[in-house]
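Extended Data, panel c. Modelled sequence:
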Amino acid sequence: MKFKTVASIAAILSFINGSFFLLAPVFSLSLLGRDTNLTGIMNTRFSGACAIGLAVIVWLAKDIKYPEVRRLMTYGMLTTFSLLVVIDINGIMTGAINNLGWLLFFADLYLLLGFVLSIFTDGGWHH
């Protein structure tokens, strides 16, 4: 998968997810089978703001022509989506989120694998 393709998909999905978490945290958490207090709402909004920031960074970098920058962006995205996959699984297995969490898990796993594939199709390992 080309870096531009996976970066575009990651940016769009991160923006959508982040917007829901930022603008409608109670609704977003209710979809996952949870309610929360004011601290949880604030933390959900922080997560949303971070996801939107990540979306903007990846969207702006998707057309970058410098392999070194694509490689560094890929490392950052691999880190992010690896952590998200672990968090998703933990949330599902502990019951912190309902079965809708599987959708998040598979989306994050798809993006993780997309960035791994971009390493081989866009020469991401080369210096």
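DSSP finds five helices and no strands in the chain. This feature is highlighted in the accompanying rendering.
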